[in-house]
Specification:
The complex is a heterodimer of chains A (382) and B (367).
Chain A: H1 2-14, E1 26-34, E2 38-41, E3 44-53, E4 58-65, E5 69-76, E6 81-83, E7 92-99, E8 104-112, E9 119-121, E10 134-140, E11 145-146, E12 150-159, E13 166-171, E14 179-183, E15 198-207, E16 211-215, E17 219-223, E18 229-233, E19 237-242, E20 249-254, E21 263-272, E22 278-288, E23 293-296, E24 300-305, E25 310-319, E26 323-335, E27 338-350, H2 357-380
Parallel strand pairs in A: 11-19
Antiparallel strand pairs in A: 1-8, 2-3, 2-9, 3-4, 4-5, 6-7, 7-8, 10-12, 12-15, 13-17, 14-15, 16-19, 17-18, 20-21, 21-25, 22-24, 22-26, 23-25, 26-27
Chain B: E1 3-9, H1 10-24, H2 31-34, E2 42-49, H3 52-56, E3 66-68, H4 79-98, E4 105-111, H5 116-131, E5 136-143, H6 150-165, E6 171-175, H7 176-179, H8 186-208, H9 218-225, E7 231-238, H10 246-254, E8 270-279, H11 286-296, E9 302-309, E10 315-322, H12 326-358
Parallel strand pairs in B: 1-2, 1-4, 2-3, 4-5, 5-6, 6-7, 8-9
Antiparallel strand pairs in B: 7-10, 8-10
Helix pairs in contact in B: 1-5, 1-8, 4-5, 5-6, 6-12, 10-11
Chain lengths: 382, 367
């Protein structure tokens, strides 16, 4: 163990420290620079000229040494670049270690300590950087979409940047399965939008499926003056396609029992408890068994029944033969292209004629007396 | 129980029979529609007539008890025609009677002055005597109003004689002439007389067929009716609450006013009598009744008495046979005169007719 400690001390003592070499030693320091800022070391100046591509990590640097040396170079992020021989040769070695945005990046500066201490000098007057900036929005004209309803979708692209955007393209894909696209899809935006300019495209689609629909983000892609491709997207959001408004007809039958030969009214009430108007309402009746009970005026054709209202009518019922019967009403109606049928039924009895035999008991004595008197009359009639 | 046949022959007999039937119903006009006839015995009634209209006017006699003798529309008070009709139909008539069974007592009710009754009755009695040998046959002979006409008078005279000749078991006389004093008009007089006769006959039948305190029976009746002239009559009296004396009732029943044929009992015109007394027990003092009956025997040869206990004031029926009948002698005198008068009138009319015919003797019709 003792030997391991001794060995480590020897290694530490023997290795030369980068910053501790008085003349030849190289040191480094990192600076966060905005475009136009520079670092001064001795008579060297390293300036961040431009961030050419944030996506590709291309940055433009310029190094000058008085009048003796000047070089501007596009460097790649993470790659050390030697200027005027590099730090080993008395020059500078510069590395972009990070690009924050299109305006700023982190620069690592390696230098001989003999050059002095590097200092950051901010740009005296920073010119605003001209660039396009497209903001894209997608909106529906209805907050709630009902099944079958048409909805108008507006895609708006606004250039909030300071430079014109070229080759503007909107990618509104994929098409939603919950909608049928009727007109205007895919949306088309002017290919070039100047600063502050807005363009919008409208397309119409109809909800064909109920439920929660996730509307995905759409993207606008464009180029700036330097042909750099820029993109922007909307946030995705969700909308609900509500079930369609339909009429709902409920038929009721009010009927009383009858006796053979007797007529009675039968009242039919058709209520529309739905949210849409029922049209072409056709009422057809069926009596089972078919013989013995006659219904007149039960079949009807009603043009429409608005929601919340009811249609009443009265038909006639005439008993012909005693028995139990079932009257079934089939009510078919339309709502748009949809045809619905509702059925209701009621039982009615044609009662046996009730004979009040007790009355005969009252008459019976009179009949007997009458018969007796007649018998006597005949007995004494000559 | 007695089996009684009541025959009403001719219009008068039919009406008396109808009155009997009405009394059997209780007397009410409508009783036949709701009530039942209550005869004291088994009584069969038959109305016989040649005139169908006379049968039709009956109201209380059942249709089956009305017998029309066919092919005759009345006999027009002609007894010869009536007799001929009887002989031609006697089998039918008697067969109809025999259908009713056997009888103990037969009343033949008839007017002696009419056509059908006066001609049928003697012959019918004769035939009934032959067929019902044990039956007591008594005609109820109604005498006419004397002013009804000569034919009726001569019919009465001959009919009465024939009924005696056929040896009926006595005869009960009813004199319309005598009884019409009870009513002002003829129609109501007939009704009243018929009702009186009907009540007394039913009382008599009841008396002959009842359990009695003191018994009178059919034999007594027959004995009474066979006495004297074999003619008799019926007397009746009903006491009221004010004077319920049974002795007075007996006396009143024998007074001329209570008889169907006028007879002076006190003058000895009654030969035998049957007195039937009916009433509540408190009214029927047997001693008094006996005393009264005994007093009657001083003027009447023999008196049968019968006492029937039945609720009510005393009712008395007296059956008399006559020893003398001055009224009948008078009737026959009138009948004789009537016959002569009729003959003279006929001769006179015939001679006048012949004289008229003589005016055309030796003449011929010229055309």
């Amino acid at each position: 163990m003792r030997y391991i400690y001794l060995l480590l001390l020897l290694v530490i003592h023997a290795s030369p420290a980068a910053g501790n070499n008085d003349d030849q030693s190289v040191s480094f320091q990192e600076f966060t620079l905005s475009i136009g800022d520079r670092v001064e070391i001795g008579d060297y100046r390293a300036e961040l000229v431009d961030i050419q591509s944030l996506k590709d990590g291309l940055v433009v640097l310029r190094v000058t040494q008085g009048s003796k040396f000047e070089e501007q170079r596009v460097v790649i992020e993470g790659s050390p670049n030697s200027f005027n021989g590099g730090a080993e040769e008395g020059g500078l070695t510069l590395t972009i270690t990070d690009i924050f945005d299109e305006e700023s990046a982190k620069l690592r500066v390696e230098y001989r300590e003999s050059l002095g201490t590097p200092r950051k000098r901010a740009a005296e007057k920073r010119e605003p950087r001209a660039a396009p900036n497209l903001v894209i929005e997608k909106s529906f004209d209805k907050s709630t979409v009902n099944y079958g309803e048409e909805v108008k979708v507006t895609v708006t692209v606004r250039n909030v940047g300071t430079e014109a955007a070229r080759s503007v393209e909107v990618y509104d894909i994929p098409p939603l399965a919950e909608f049928a696209y009727i007109a205007g899809y895919p949306p088309k935006i002017k290919s070039e939008l100047g600063p502050g300019e807005t363009d919008s495209a409208v397309y119409v689609m109809r909800a064909v499926k109920e439920g929660l629909v996730k509307v995905p983000q759409i993207e606008v892609r464009y180029k700036d003056a330097k042909d750099r491709i820029r993109t922007n997207t909307t946030e995705s959001f969700e909308i609900i396609v509500a079930p369609p408004k339909r009429p709902n007809l409920i038929a009721r039958i009010n009927v009383t029992n009858v006796t053979p030969g007797e007529a009675a009214p039968i009242e039919v009430i058709i209520d529309n408890t739905g949210q849409a108007t029922a049209t072409m309402v056709e009422v057809s009746s069926e009596v089972k068994p078919p013989e013995g009970l006659r219904c007149t005026g039960l079949d009807q054709l009603i043009p429409e029944i608005p929601p919340g209202s009811a249609k009443r009518y009265t038909a006639e019922l005439r008993g012909e033969r005693s028995g139990n019967y079932t009257i079934t009403l089939s009510v078919s109606y339309r709502s748009g292209e949809t045809v619905s049928i509702t059925k209701t039924s009621a039982s009615v009895s044609v009662l046996e004629r009730e004979y009040k035999y007790l009355y005969y008991l009252l008459v019976l004595p009179l009949m007997l007396v009458g018969l007796w008197v007649y018998k006597r009359y005949k007995e004494y009639k000559y | 129980m007695l089996n009684v046949l009541m025959l009403g022959v001719g219009q008068c007999g039919n009406r008396i029979l109808d009155a009997v039937n009405r009394q059997a119903f209780g007397g009410s006009r409508l009783a036949k529609y709701y009530s039942k006839q209550r005869f004291p015995s088994r009584v069969e009634t038959i109305a016989i007539n040649t005139a169908i209209n006379d049968l039709k006017e009956l109201k209380f006699t059942a249709a089956k008890d009305r017998l029309h003798v066919p092919n005759l529309h009345g006999v027009g008070a002609n007894r010869n025609k009536g007799k001929q009709g009887f002989w031609e139909n006697q089998e039918m008539i008697l067969e109809e009677i025999e259908k009713r069974g056997d009888f103990d007592l037969i009343f033949v009710m008839t007017s002696v002055s009419g056509g059908t009754g006066s001609s049928f009755s003697p012959l019918m009695i004769h035939e009934l005597k032959k067929r019902y040998k044990n039956a007591t046959i008594v005609p109820i002979a109604v005498l006419p109003f004397r002013e009804e006409g000569t034919i009726y008078l001569q019919n009465a005279a001959f009919c009465l004689r024939e009924m005696i000749e056929v040896e009926a078991d006595g005869m009960i006389l009813v004199d319309n002439q005598y009884l019409k004093r009870f009513s002002g008009d003829i129609a109501s007089a007939y009704d009243r007389i018929n009702t009186m006769v009907a009540q007394r006959l039913l009382f008599l039948i009841e008396a002959l067929d009842s359990e009695m305190l003191s018994v009178t029976d059919l034999g007594d009746f027959k004995t009474v009716m066979s006495g004297g002239l074999r003619m008799g009559t019926l007397g009746y009296y009903q006491a009221d609450k004010k004077s319920p004396s049974v002795r007075a009732a007996i006396k009143n029943s024998l007074r001329e006013v209570g008889l169907l044929y006028p007879a002076n009992v006190d003058a000895g015109e009654a030969g035998r009598a049957m007195i039937v007394i009916q009433g509540s027990r408190e009214y029927l003092d047997v001693d008094e009744i006996t005393k009264e009956i005994e007093s009657l025997t001083e003027t009447i040869g023999h008196v049968f008495k019968g006492i029937v206990i039945k609720k009510g004031e005393p009712r008395v029926l007296s059956v008399l046979s006559l020893e003398r009948a001055p009224g009948l002698v008078e009737l026959y005198e009138k009948a004789k005169w009537a016959i002569q008068e009729e003959r003279e009138r006929k001769d006179r009319a015939r001679s006048e007719l012949y004289e008229a015919f003589e005016q055309i003797n030796d003449l011929e019709e010229i055309y």
